[in-house]
Amino acid sequence: MTLSLTSAGESHGPALVAIVGGLPAGLELDRDWIDADLKRRQEGYGRSPRQQIEQDRVEVLAGLRQGRTLGTPLALVVRNVDHKNWTWGMAPWPPEGEPTGKGTKAVTLPRPGHADLAGVLKYGHDDVRNALERASARHTAVHVAAGTVAKALLRTIGIEVRGATVAEDVLQARIDEARAARDTVGGVVEVRATGVPPGLGSYATKDDRLDARLAFALMGIQAVKGVEIGDGFALAGLLGSEAHDEIRTDRRRDTNHAGGIEAGISNGEEIVVRAAMKPLPTLMKPLRSVDLETGEAAQALVERSDVAAVEALAVVAEGAVAWELACAAKDKFGGDAIADFVAAHRAYVERIQWR
Ligand SMILES: Cc1cc2nc3c(=O)[nH]c(=O)nc-3n(C[C@H](O)[C@H](O)[C@H](O)COP(=O)(O)O)c2cc1C
């Protein structure tokens, strides 16, 4: 069975939910692994105070018994601790009594760079909050949890995935400057995967291509506006003799310009992908906008927000890449039980004599 992932949840609703399907039975999952990644997502230079309020923790409602998967859908929940201040404003049914707490007044000042304007036009909302709550990157928390599950599956066959920011030292100075100017910044993250055997993904159709799947997964993360596989855009300026990774007699390479993927298939070298994040669109010094209620020129909504979330993106991107690699590995090796998955991988690397 192919792995599947679906999620639901608003930024200030009661909880974020993910359902992961297709996991082999018997996979060990430690709650601390997931909570540690959730914590990493919340940390990082330039984040807002919300990250201190929340302290995300995972709950598992189904699919796991005594720390091992059952081979049934895994239901993951991350509660929004801040929801207690929004119970009236985010209530699923019209609440009784006087409006109280946050989110009770309609937002009519769309922020450039957010879902706000296009979202209300598309869905016919009067309150921008109806668009921004789901468009927010808050629900990446539960995707990170699913990413940790994917990493656990990959680890059984020796694959490790790690994300990091690029040029962190420069980034901190830029964040300080932006904060002082009530502005925001973006940045670049890189995800590397080691231990990936040749043969994940395929050139058979565009949907099977591992590079396409990784790009799709990374572009699916809020604020990501560019993705590179290996040397990416820089390859365009090189000669063929400079750009391609020559093959040694042991079938390995001395260089890795391709980022571990050729023709949509992993080639056994380290997988290297990069994602570019735009500057966050909620500014404490708001940009020009329109009041949707009056039609008058106005300044965009100012709501508690990060100055930068590049380190958080590194964790989210790590989870997204791990998820795609886990999908490709599950497609290749199958297995209802984790032992079948591991045995199929072992038989395959023996067949191709890969070390
Ligand atoms: C981990 C993470 C945290 C983010 N935090 C914020 C934030 O605090 N404020 C903000 O304006 N945008 C934040 N964003 C970006 C917005 O969610 C995103 O720019 C917006 O939803 C519009 O989508 P788009 O940039 O993909 O077009 C964050 C993105 C990520 C990945």
User: What is the succession of H and E elements?
Assistant: EEHHEEEEHHHEHEHEHEEEEEHH
Q: Roughly how many Å apart are the termini?
A: 27 Å
Helix/strand/pairing category: alpha+beta
Instruction: Work out the number of β strands.
Output: 14
Task: Please tell me what the overall shape is.
Answer: globular
The Cα radius of gyration reads 22 Å
Strand order of the largest sheet: 1-2-6-3
Mean pLDDT: 96
- What percent of the residues sit in helical stretches (DSSP H or I)? 25-40%
How is the biggest beta sheet arranged? Answer: 4 strands, antiparallel
Number of helices: 10
Q: Please state roughly what percent of the residues sit in beta strands, choosing from under 5%, 5-15%, 15-25%, 25-35%, 35-45% or over 45%.
A: 15-25%
Bound molecules: flavin mononucleotide
Q: List low-pLDDT spans.
A: none
Question: Could you write a compact summary of the structure shown?
Answer:
The protein is α+β, with helices and mostly antiparallel strands and 355 residues long. The chain contains 10 helices and 14 strands.
Which terms would index this structure?
binds flavin mononucleotide; 355 residues; 14 strands; 32% helix; alpha+beta; 4-stranded antiparallel β-sheet
Describe it.
By secondary structure, the chain is of the alpha+beta class. The chain has helices at 31-42, 50-54, 116-123, 129-135, 140-155, 168-180, 210-219, 240-243, 310-333, 338-351; strands at residues 4-8, 15-21, 58-62, 64-65, 68-69, 74-79, 160-165, 187-194, 224-229, 261-262, 265-266, 271-277, 288-290, 297-299. The strands form 5 sheets. It has a 4-stranded antiparallel sheet with strand order 1-2-6-3. A 4-stranded antiparallel sheet has the order 7-8-12-9. A two-stranded antiparallel sheet has the order 4-5. Helix 1 (31-42) crosses helix 5 (140-155), helix 3 (116-123) packs across helix 4 (129-135) and helix 7 runs antiparallel to helix 9. The chain is globular. The mean pLDDT is 96.
